TrEMBL record:
One of the GO BP terms on file: phosphatidylinositol dephosphorylation
Protein's UniProt name: Endonuclease/exonuclease/phosphatase
Keywords: Endonuclease, Hydrolase, Nuclease
Species in which this protein is naturally found: Schizothecium vesticola
GO molecular function: endonuclease activity; phosphatidylinositol-4,5-bisphosphate 5-phosphatase activity
Length: 1207
């Protein structure tokens, strides 16, 4: 519309102040209605230059015009961002049912029909009524709309109410309580001019003037530099605050937006746009509007829009309920003619007639529809649209910024904090699955009180550390270049990077090698689906860092076709969904490629079938059923891609977040339990979600290291860590059980893939890992060796003879005392006599001493460490005499105080203050074999033996025993050093490995070969562990000991706390009898008084006994301290009962045959399940066809090797 003739530079007339005053004075008459001819148009105040519009509130499509009765004042051309948006404003007259009243600004209502304006009549402006100005000026903020500043005055045409039509695709959802409150944005309020209000949706109408070709004229400037509307805030209120302002006004005062008369809302009738109302529950059923046209245009403006202010997001969320807390159902209010019903969402692939083949396998069937995962498609009459469909947000090229709910969360990579909701100015997608009744199936959040608690740590007591090698094929393949992405299908594995190479896992031969070109590298790779199951893994799709997609043929080692489909955005992921392929780039563009009608496989020739826009900041994503679960930092969003770009795309209103866990780094699903989705986090936690209702089922802390990759193999969850280790968890028990844990790579594990096709193609289940060391390694996904060894141990009572041995253990930090030191006190002199005579003639006696030399003598310690050769003779002789004195003293005590039993010295071992002395009964000595001892130094970085351990192991019959005497790092704050000492001792390879495979299975546990401590069946650890009591002062501890309140102290014991809270604490695999005695450290020598020296060390249970056994083969009978005052520590002893076994070889052979038979039966069952999963959930065959394919393949195998299955 051309601006009227005027003397203003922007097309507006300049009038004297007196005329404006008269105009505002007439506005004080609220009850009058013009009776004469319509007044001439008056100059509207000049509009403030619009602020940049946040990308979440930009309109992708123009709206139809809102007709007026007068020609408005001049409007600057080329201002698409200043279009009038009436989102959220309602007519008070319509809602209250009463007649309309004059507007808030004194403007007359708009007329439904254009009326030629009078050419000469000019009415001066009037001052606004004081009462209305007072009511608004105190509470009103900013401009509700920049277009309201140039709105002309329209003549009154009666008191017809302004009807507000239903918003065409307002989502409906059932009120639910979120798990976590939305996170508030930490951004400060912008200091820019007030921004426009939230936009109307793309299907709502706009004014005619927006469709006019605009001229590039600058926006008008406020000459007076004065605010045109009283304002106290510099930010833009949203629709909900506008409603709150109007609610505070008198019922007879109505905004000028409410003046147009009602109409049926049809654009053909030139009626004004209808504003939606938001009635409260119950949900009203109605037919949805016709689908929107897909936007193919850019938003005007080349600048990056500012983020939505947190205060605006709060008010937009609060408008759903008056109190702003509940998100009730949002239903459109139908007025006028009903729009046509939205057609039903089409299937992801149109049904087609499959071509028959002469032989198996049949060609790939049409991919199942959206209900393959148990969710039906809603009828067209009840299907509800959501606001985040790519129809209104997906741009053609990548230069455009995102809009609405696709806005990037720029703070998603920061630390944990309150959850911040989506930066959408309109209601975000409904938290619902598409079901026939369109009722929400779940919420992305539950109540804070119902938030899943972190479960107990996994049980590591029976972890197997052996590597699960495959029986056939090569074990490892070196890629010989830096590769981080790979895919595997059957016997072929393909990696990409600067090269794309493929190998055969059967013999390790390289079958393809392609160079990606200078400056380009492969960033994603996947095996292309074949026309039938036997034609799988013949070609690969490669995504590059330049946004190019290539299809390569492995047999010819050539590129078949290529296409730049992602506009130079790096392709970061390629997914397979039945016989579709989805490609995602780092700009957030998702393309869906469906099979053509000739080859039944996706092709790059015709381009993608549909495209979508997802959130940027991708950290992990995967396909779950028909959905794409995409993680950005801690947030997980769920999308539903399909052939129809106009259909519902984003599933959840808000992302799924667990603030107690770190960033999402990996994820998987289990074929045995596809309804659960597992995500690995950077802080070593695993979160579990339900794919049915999106609820969080729990969070498990499985490690202290970053989880780089997860894979589901049958009933087990595989996790690859940043340390290069791989763990396998059995989730069928509570808490989870760590079945395996081994060092798979020297560098971090980059990716794990459980190959679903391997069982069907190779008759084995393989899991392939890629490490940062550029090594590909294949593992046995069925864990056959683990199952066989575990089953044999469970059957050992059928082929073994069991016997119980009595074991007595004493640990004592002697404080450099000698046997002669015991003579100075009568109670000390009689200690060993009473101790041995009350022991009950044990079969094995273990004496573990610490600090038999004075470690406090810094001079002597320095001499031993710094000058070992020069002073070795003298010091070693002195130390040897000390150890010899204790050895001889203990032997005499056994002879004197236990005359009925004959004991023999089995072994002694010293280490700079540590001393282990083992005696056994004479009749037991011939049954002992494989005796060995070792030492682990931990002092001064592992160079000195003042701290460390002595480890002695031997076998009694066919059971292996291991005894550890240790002295760990000291200090109240040295808990982490002690943890590291324990880990180093238990993980050290200190013994020669057992070479006989049968002996390894019979005598050692955990898949070990006897070279490590935890390989042995029966382990006992004693010593001065130096764990202290935390967060309590010395006086408090002493008082609690005097009062007998030991439980209060034990709750803060560092060892017990670490066992509860630290999943990587290695002593979690050990057990300890409950402590009922007072702390054994630290006393004044010769007294019963805790340390009264200058340091005044706090009492603690430093001296401990812990044990570990398989299936309860160790039973502790007592656990007590003894009163020997010659040292600052009190001795601690325990009596145990060890169960050892003796194997009958013939019975064992029979048990082994039975075990193998059960394994074959179990393997056959597992194989059928894995094959059905592959054919139905990956390939897309129905159950009948899949079963036929499995049967035919099995028959062909029997024909090739009949002797294997013959009688």
């Amino acid at each position: 519309m051309d601006p009227p003739a005027s003397n203003g530079p922007d097309g507006s007339s300049i009038k004297p102040v007196s005329s404006l005053r008269a105009k505002f004075e007439n506005m004080t008459k609220p009850g009058e209605t013009p009776t004469g001819p319509p007044p001439p148009p008056s100059a509207a105040p000049r509009a403030v230059s619009p602020a940049p519009k946040p990308e979440a509130i930009r309109d992708p499509a123009p709206q139809p015009p809102l007709p007026t009765t007068q020609k408005p004042p001049s409007v600057p051309k080329m201002r698409p961002k200043d279009k009038l948006h009436l989102t959220g404003l309602q007519s008070l007259g319509a809602s209250n049912g009463g007649p309309e009243s004059p507007s808030l600004h004194g403007l007359a209502p708009l007329s439904p029909r254009p009326v030629p304006p009078p050419s000469l009549l000019i009415e001066p402006p009037h001052s606004p009524p004081r009462r209305i100005g007072d009511a608004v000026g105190a509470d009103r903020v900013g401009f509700l709309n920049t277009d309201s500043l140039v709105k002309p005055q329209s003549p009154a045409t009666g008191s017809r109410n302004f009807k507000i039509p239903s918003r065409p695709h307002t989502p409906i959802f059932e009120p639910r309580t979120p798990v976590l409150e939305p996170r508030r944005s930490p951004r400060l309020p912008p200091s820019q001019p007030p921004s426009p209000p939230p936009p109307r949706r793309s299907t709502e109408l706009r004014r005619d003037r927006d469709f006019k070709e605009a001229k590039p004229t600058p926006p008008p400037v406020n000459r007076a530099e004065k605010p045109l509307i009283p304002s106290r805030a510099s930010y833009l209120p949203d629709a909900s605050q506008a409603l709150e302002i109007k609610a505070r006004l008198d019922n007879d005062k109505v905004s000028p937006f409410n003046s147009p008369p009602s109409s049926n809302g049809s654009p053909e009738n030139d009626s004004p746009p209808m504003l939606p109302t938001r009635p409260r529950p119950p949900i009203q059923s109605h037919s949805p509007p016709e689908p929107l046209a897909r936007s193919k245009t850019f938003h005007a403006g080349g600048f990056e829009p500012p983020p939505v202010h947190h205060s605006l997001a709060n008010r937009r969320r609060d408008r759903e309920e008056p109190n702003g807390t509940a998100r009730g159902p949002i239903t459109p209010q139908i007025s006028g003619d009903q729009p046509p019903a939205l057609p039903a969402r089409p299937q992801q692939e149109a049904p087609r007639t499959t071509k028959s083949t002469l032989g198996p396998p049949p060609p790939r069937p049409p991919r199942p529809g959206l209900n393959t995962s148990g969710h039906e498609v809603a009828p067209a009459a009840s299907q509800k649209r959501v606001s985040s469909t790519p129809t209104t947000t997906l741009p053609p090229p990548p230069t455009r910024t995102h809009g609405r709910s696709m806005t990037i969360d720029r703070l998603s990579t920061r630390g944990a904090g309150p959850y911040r909701g989506s930066q959408a100015t309109i209601p975000a997608p409904v938290e619902t699955r598409i079901t026939p009744d369109t009722q929400p199936a779940g919420s992305s959040k539950a109540d804070d009180s119902a938030a899943p608690a972190i479960a107990a740590f996994p049980d590591t007591s029976n972890t197997n550390r052996s590597k699960p090698y495959l029986g056939k094929g090569v074990y490892e393949i070196s890629t010989k270049y830096d590769s981080r992405i790979f895919d595997v299908c059957g016997e072929l594995v393909c990696t990409t990077g600067v090269f794309t190479r493929a190998w055969r896992l059967s013999d390790g031969e390289q079958v393809m090698s392609l160079a990606m070109g200078e400056g380009t590298k492969g960033s994603a790779v996947i095996f292309k689906p074949g026309s039938n199951v036997d034609e799988e893994a013949q070609r690969v799709w490669i995504g590059t860092s330049a946004g190019e997609l290539m299809e390569a043929d492995i047999a010819t080692q050539s590129i078949i076709s290529s296409r730049t489909a992602h506009n130079r955005c790096e392709v970061i992921k390629i997914y397979r969904h039945f016989n579709d392929l989805w490609t995602l780039d780092d700009g957030g563009t998702l393309h869906v490629w469906v099979p053509d009608e000739q080859s039944y496989t996706p092709s790059l020739v015709g381009g993608p079938s549909s495209s979508f826009r997802v959130t940027k900041g991708h950290s992990f994503s995967m396909v779950v059923g028909d959905e794409l679960w995409l993680a950005t930092g801690k947030e997980i969003r769920v999308y539903l891609p399909g052939l129809d770009s106009r259909a519902q795309f984003q599933v959840l209103l808000r992302p799924l977040v667990q603030d107690s866990a770190g960033d999402v780094t990996s994820g998987t699903i289990l074929p045995s339990d596809p309804d659960k989705v597992f995500f690995g986090h950077g802080d070593g936690k695993v979160s579990i979600y339900s794919s049915a209702d999106y609820s969080c089922l729990g969070v498990m802390s499985v490690s202290g290291y970053k989880i780089n990759s997860l894979a589901g193999a049958g009933r087990y969850l595989w996790a690859g860590y940043n340390t290069g280790r791989i763990s396998v968890f059995d989730m069928g028990q509570t808490p989870w059980v760590v079945k395996k844990d081994w060092q798979a790579h020297d560098n971090p594990v980059v990716k794990l893939i459980a190959d679903p096709s391997s069982m069907y193609k190779l008759d084995r289940f393989q899991v392939v890992s890629l490490g940062a060391d550029n090594m590909l390694r294949a593992w046995d996904g069925l864990l056959q060796e683990d199952w066989l060894s575990s089953e044999m141990r469970n059957m050992d009572t059928t082929y073994c003879t069991m016997e119980k041995l009595k074991v007595l253990v004493l640990t004592w930090n002697a404080g450099a005392s000698t046997p002669n030191s015991l003579r100075y006190s009568d109670s000390d002199a009689g200690f060993f006599q009473g101790f041995l005579q009350s022991s009950g003639t044990p079969d094995i006696l273990i004496f573990g001493f610490q600090e038999l030399v004075d470690l406090e003598d810094k001079t002597a310690t320095a001499k031993r460490f710094l000058k070992p050769k020069k002073k070795e003779g003298t010091d070693q002789e002195r130390m040897s005499h000390q150890y010899r004195d204790w050895r001889d003293f203990l032997a005499r005590c056994l002879d004197d105080y236990m005359p009925g039993s004959l004991y023999q010295l089995l072994h002694t071992a010293p280490l700079v203050g540590l001393f282990t002395c083992i005696f056994v009964k004479a009749d037991l000595r011939p049954r002992i074999s494989s005796l060995s001892s070792a030492e682990v130094k931990r002092g001064m970085g592992g160079l000195h033996g003042n701290k460390g351990a002595i480890v002695v192991r031997f076998k009694v019959d066919d059971s292996s025993l291991c005894f550890i005497n240790c002295h760990l790092a000291a200090g109240q704050s040295g808990a982490n050093h002690r943890h590291n000492d324990v880990a180093a001792i238990l993980e050290a390879t200190v013994f020669p490995a057992e070479r006989d495979a049968t002996a390894r299975t019979d005598s050692y546990v955990g898949g070990g070969d006897g070279s490590m401590v935890l390989d042995h069946e029966l382990c006992l650890l004693n010593g001065d562990l130096n764990y202290r009591i935390d967060t309590m002062s010395r006086d408090t501890v002493v008082m609690a000991v005097k009062m007998g309140n030991l439980n209060k102290l034990l709750e803060r014991d560092q060892l017990l706390v670490a066992r509860r809270r630290n999943p990587g604490f290695r002593l979690r695999a050990f057990d300890e009898m409950p402590i009922t005695f007072a702390p054994t450290y630290k006393y004044d020598v010769g007294t019963d008084t805790y340390d009264s020296s200058e340091k005044k060390r706090s009492p603690a249970w430093c001296d401990r006994l812990l044990f570990r056994s398989s299936r309860g083969r160790i039973e502790q009978l007592d656990y007590k301290r003894h009163e020997v005052r010659v040292s600052d520590h009190r001795p601690v002893s325990g009596r145990f009962r060890f169960t050892v076994k003796r194997i009958d070889p013939k019975q064992r052979a029979a048990a082994w045959v039975q075990c193998l038979q059960r394994w074959e039966d179990l393997r056959e069952k597992e194989a059928i399940e894995e094959k059905l999963y592959y054919l139905t959930r990956v390939i897309g065959y129905d159950m009948t066809t899949s079963q036929k394919l499995i049967k035919d393949r099995s028959n062909r195998r029997l024909q090739r090797s009949p002797s294997r299955h013959g009688e």
